[in-house]
From TrEMBL, chains A, B:
Keywords: DNA-binding. Residues 1-27 are annotated as: Disordered. This is TetR/AcrR family transcriptional regulator. Residues 58-77 bind DNA. It comes from Streptomyces luteolus. It holds the Pfam family TetR_N. Gene3D superfamilies: Tetracycline Repressor, domain 2. PANTHER family: HTH-TYPE TRANSCRIPTIONAL REGULATOR RUTR, POSSIBLE TRANSCRIPTIONAL REGULATORY PROTEIN (PROBABLY TETR-FAMILY). The keyword DNA-binding applies. Residues 35-95 form the HTH tetR-type domain. The lineage of its organism: Bacteria, Bacillati, Actinomycetota, Actinomycetes, Kitasatosporales. InterPro entries: Homeodomain-like_sf, HTH-type_TetR-like_transc_reg, HTH_TetR.
Length: 215, 215
DNA sequence: TTGCGAACCGGAGTGCGTTCCGGTTAGTGT
DNA sequence: ACACTAACCGGAACGCACTCCGGTTCGCAA
């Protein structure tokens, strides 16, 4: 089937983008045709998102453009939300390395409270920069945001910081959820629509929220 | 159809009726057949939700049970989310009268900070009591929660209280959104699923959040 | 090289929310 | 009583996410 066989040496891209999160017992390696199709699908999806806008990114369209059946997309990405999250994956990875190993106050070295603030601000900026994709990822399937790898990572990161910043016995898991909740793309979409809220406003509001606790 | 015809003479006065110009804010009066169908639809929807569960509440099924076309449902309720919200309307109304005119600390008379706390707690209880319906209402359509009447009312209520409790210049609109955000049904569904969180935990967590500010 | 099973492939099929539109009816003015 | 029209009605049709399954391919081991 694949007539255009590359004469180049096997491309040196990332060895298997496998999950951002908890790898429990190695998910099994990916067959070469599967990997090739994943690449095609992502390329097609990115192309279509750029052309037709995110809301024009239908699964059938992507499948057609990638020369693949829709079943293949669902096996790889689970659902439409998974596909959109995959589109965000590259940015997400660099974001993760910034707050886990970058320079303070986002990275290690600063006070936990300052890191929490920097983290939320960075998230607000990221939301603004990739608003359409993030909104689509979040609304493509019910609960998609919370089930996603990135959410789990962000949550775990916040919990670690809050455990240092809050007295023992505090439910830092809930607190982390509560701090992430205002950064829901749907909520911010609503705030934009009704009150013209900007990323600057969001950050200021989050500071209000934090000043109480972390001042 | 409607056999009970009124024997009363045509009302003597009050020419009243429809304004010649569309009055923004005043919903046009509803025709009697429309009202009858609304009642039928809601009754059928409640019946089906009780029988098949909320996830079995499909629009086609409701239309069939109500003896009505699906178009009629959409004209009345806008979308599936609107229908589910309508199912919650009765409870919502009594809840609203409680926090607007009931006894303290939920109703007027208590300190604003205490009222905020009582309000959020009441919301958490309500969420627990009608979890399935609320989750369905929120996830039936993207952004349904924020576009809904109840959200606007809750938000306005919180803003009014926060305006009294926070120093001038605070963005109480954002703060209100931020306090309501953790009470998203989707988020709580996730917390239940992954950590077995209960309404008690939610309230304790919200108290943590508020203690900082409203000490 | 050959055999074999697990993993993968594609696309027809399904279910459901939503829209569209030709026909019908309630309510008003004459 | 009659005419007129805006609002309403039903349900066929549509778009799209997602599933299912018979056929194919990869990768390993003999």
């Amino acid at each position: 089937m694949d007539s255009r066989r590359s004469a180049l040496p096997p491309e040196s891209d990332t060895p298997v983008p496998r999950p951002l999160l908890p790898v429990v017992g190695q998910p099994a390696p990916e067959r070469v045709d599967a990997a090739r199709n994943r690449r095609r699908i992502l390329a097609a999806a990115a192309r279509i998102a750029a052309t037709h806008g995110v809301q024009g990114l239908t699964v059938d369209l992507v499948a057609g453009a990638a020369g693949v059946g829709v079943g293949t997309i669902y096996r790889r990405f689970g659902d439409r939300a998974g596909l959109v999250f995959a589109l965000l994956d590259e940015h997400e990875r660099s974001f993760q390395s910034e707050f886990m190993a970058g320079t303070p106050p986002l990275g290690p070295g600063a006070e936990p409270t300052a890191r929490v603030r920097a983290f939320l601000h960075a998230l607000a900026d990221r939301l603004e920069a990739q608003f359409e994709l993030m909104l689509a990822a979040e609304t493509s399937a019910p609960g998609a945001r919370y089930r996603s790898g990135p959410y789990a990572v962000h949550h775990a990161h916040l919990v670690a910081l809050l455990d240092q910043a809050r007295p023992p016995g505090t439910d830092t898991h809930f607190l982390a959820d509560a701090l992430l909740a205002p950064l829901s793309a749907s909520l911010i979409a609503h705030q934009r629509r009704t009150r013209g809220v900007t990323a600057r406003d969001v950050k200021a509001g989050l500071d209000d929220l934090l000043r109480w606790s972390l001042g």
